[in-house]
Amino acid sequence: xNILRYLYRxxxxxxxxxxxxxxxxxxxxxxxxxxxxxxxxxxHFYFIVQNSVDPFWKEVIKGAEVAAKDxxxxxxxxxxxxxxxxxxxKYIDIATLSRVDGIITHAVGTEDFTNAIDRAYxxxxxxxxxxxxxxxxxxYAFAGTNxxxxxxxxxxxxxxxxxxxxxVAIITNSDSNQDIIENNLxxxxxxxxxxxxxxxxxxxxxxxxxxxxxxxxITQKIIESDENINAIFTxxxxxxxxxxxxxxxxxxxxxxxxxxxxxxxxITxxxxxxIIYGTVASDPYKMGYDxxxxxxxxxxxNSVPTxxxxxxxxxxxxxxxxxxxxxxxxxxxxxxxxxxxxxxx
Length: 345
What we know:
Belongs to the bacterial solute-binding protein 2 family. By secondary structure, this protein is of the alpha/beta class. It is 53% helix and 17% strand.
């Protein structure tokens, strides 16, 4: 009887040890598969943005980083400190010479960008452009919005904010060497929408070349001028933040209406505090995420659209709660789409 009891206990002990060992073995296998996934990315992409200071581009990068994890690719990010087309062109050529698996780049619709993108194409490297397009090049797809429509929506926002009356200054970050086509489309949309509003006068257009600090200096000039300017339209998110900060510093909140561009957390905080009346924005997070997703699908041999519409949003204090809810919902949808593609039901 004692012997049977002893044998029974030994059998239980042996079974327990086997169960534990099996569990450890499975865990090690899982760990190896995880390590394998992380250490052996499927593709190496080069990602080039216009500059490293504008909050817009930081949001683009954030979306791309999430997509890189979701699709198990390595992304090498490159950006000039400030807008510098020659640096962007240099990055495209470096990526081409490095034989990366794909390039995602901000572009300008000029011959030098077209040639740089085509050089990558002839080396078998697919290129996607975003925010600004180079539609004469051999890029595979473009992720962005309609620039004319952005200008139109901004003008409609200005009309509403000023009740159709005001002296307006424009701060644009474009000059003769950068983004002429896209900037002209925005301005055409803006001016065309305002043409029937005789009581809205465009007093002056300024050019910002150095981002936030430059727009602060320009806003200071606007405040000090004797032209009774009571509204400012800024074309970039960096200039929007610079102008907003200067309006706060000079205690001009409520006296100068600011219509801007962008949807970063800093910008939405200014809108919530009624320092910025409202902004028009594309979706930089979606732009970054969808660019990576599209390039991944190209490399996998899947069909992709040649135009990825990242949509236009108009953000004011009245719609801020709805905007934040939609943003959260959108990010959840992206996660669900990824789970669906992987079969993680």
